[in-house]
Amino acid sequence: MTEPLLEARDVFAGYVADLAIVRGASIAIASGEVVTIIGPNGAGKSTFVKTMAGLVRLFSGAITLAGRAIGGLPPQDLVRAGLGFVPQTANVFTTLTVHENLRVGGHLLRHGFAARAAAIYSLFPDLADRRRHLGSQLSGGQRQMLAFARALIMEPRVLMLDEPSAGLSPKMANMVFEKARSLARTGIAVLMVEQNAKAALAVSDRAYVLVEGREQLSGPADRLLDDPAVRRLYLGGHA
Amino acid sequence: MNAFWQHFADGILTGAIIALGAIGVSLAMSILRFANFAHAELLTFGAYIALIVVTMFGTVGEPIGQLSFGWTLVVAIVPAGIATALLALAIDRVVYGGLRRRNAARMTLIFASFGVGLVVRNAIHMTFGGDPEYYTRELTIAVRLFETIRVMPDQIVVLAVAVVVVVALHLFLRYSAIGLAMRATAENPDLSRINGVDVDRIVGWTWSIAAALAAMAGVFMGLTVQLRPEMGFNLLLSLFAAAILGGNGSLIGAVFGGLLVGLAENLSVMVISAGYRQAVPFVLLVVVLYVRPSGLFGARS
Do A90 and B192 touch (CB under 8 A)? Predict the structure, then answer.
């Protein structure tokens, strides 16, 4: 791995004081990489990315973006710093139109929203046709694309996706993973949390296995795909 | 039939004032996520601040046309709105903000708002006394509309200004960046945060707008009825009935709810004693909530 863009070291975090869900987790991701965090239910994967997005309290540890300490900063400062986050559920504003969703995504922009929106619509032509539709009128896949698009309007350096394939058909899930892969080709660091480990690892460069709030295994995604323990525990295969 | 149209017109005029107050209640319920029972006191506070300004000038100004008031009262609405917004922001910082940071239950916030309302109401009572006050004692002559309806010129102006304010607020919420962020925050505060919205700032905007509208409603009520320390409190149930009837967070709903409550209160006196008029909106409320729990314009869950 080249110089890490986003790095978290010995992170302890949680919703309630003295009750850490993330217990000493560490990860690093470089520009243009797709990195996936897998693990059993309740391992703290979502809490970990939410901590990096500023939604969950960081008790201790360090989080840096391009060498700058960002741990504990409010979400709006993290967005400004170049961090994009797409939550697993309720990730579009259903009462706002597609275009208004993008406007909320560009809330911090002082200039240039129109140009960026045009670029986003060319990247997601399906959304361009539905720009006046309410979020509630979109299908699951379209909502996921809108959530991506909204996060991309700020041109983030790191895009974090929490269970991006949840609730989608296999075909749509593959499309989402391919989109993540193509975004990484533009230089964005894509960090995913996924239950659909097999499909996610197939498009990832590296992966971490998080268990009980800290990483137990890490390495190249293809190696983890072949790891007997990972196969047995998370990929539905046999050791 | 003449009496019906007279009560209908009175209902629309009362409803316009209720609507201005109900918008604030509705905004607070959707964005701040609790029922602020101290909101009614903001009406009273705003009305009395305008009275202070008018008293400082010694007059409401030379009456404009057939109106009972002059430009002084018009100008007084600005400091009344600003002072009421500052009071609301101070209350949020001292009381509600602290409770939110401690993740207090919604019921705790609601009970705190009862306490805040009590404090503000009694502070006004101690400062101004319990006697009714008036911006002006200038007599005005009612004008006839459609031969059968008599309304005071002040009431027509109040209705016109209320309409302009509601339209302006609608445009603000629909097209401005802050308005969009307010709508986004009302739906999902966390999703708004990760899109760069400073939710604390949006809370500040919400309080300011809600309080300024309450102050305006208070001044209008003081102008068309009278000022009393209980004027807001007496309107409290109507405000909530209007906001809930309209649907949580819906501007159009709050306006429609306000008009409906105003009409129900005024038309009911044709068939029941005026003493029971305040109960009428609640009958309406129960019926609407039974049929459509999210209110008339609220999103169906």
Answer: no
Per-residue pLDDT, B70: 79
Please write the tens of the pLDDT for every residue from A78-96: 999 999 999 988 899 999 9
Let me know if residue A129 belongs to a domain.
no
For residues A143-167, give the mean pLDDT.
93
Domains of chain B: 2-291 (1.10.3470)
Q: Could you tell me which chain B residue has the CA closest to the CA of A83?
A: B194
Mutation target for B interface from A50, A99, A101, A107: give the one with most B CBs within 10 A: A107
Domain count, chain A: 1
Residue A76, min C-alpha distance to chain B (Å) = 4
Please provide residue A213's backbone torsions phi and psi, each rounded to the nearest 5 degrees. 85, 5
Query: Sign (positive/negative) of CA torsion A45, A48, A49, A50?
Result: positive
Supply the CATH number for residue A83's domain.
3.40.50.300
**Residue A229 within any structural domain of the chain:** yes
Structural domain includes residue A96: no
Which residue matches tokens 């990860």? A27
- Nearest-neighbour CA in chain A from B126: distance (Å): 43
pLDDT on residue B247: 83
Specify the 3-state DSSP secondary structure of B153: helix
Give the ipTM of the model, two decimals please. Answer: 0.89
Quick check: A18 pLDDT over 70?
Answer: yes
Q: Residue A78's domain spans which residues?
A: 6-91+159-234
- Which residues are registered as beta bridge partners of A65? A6, A68
Residues from chain B contacting residue A158 (CB–CB below 8 Å): none
**What's the pTM value of the predicted model, to 2 decimals?**
0.87
Tokens of B258: 């306000």
Chain CA centroid to CA B288, Å: 21
CA distance A222 to chain B (A): 32
Residues of B in contact with A104 (CB under 8 A): 180-181, 184, 192, 195, 197
Specify if A220 maps to a domain: yes
B16 three-state secondary structure: helix
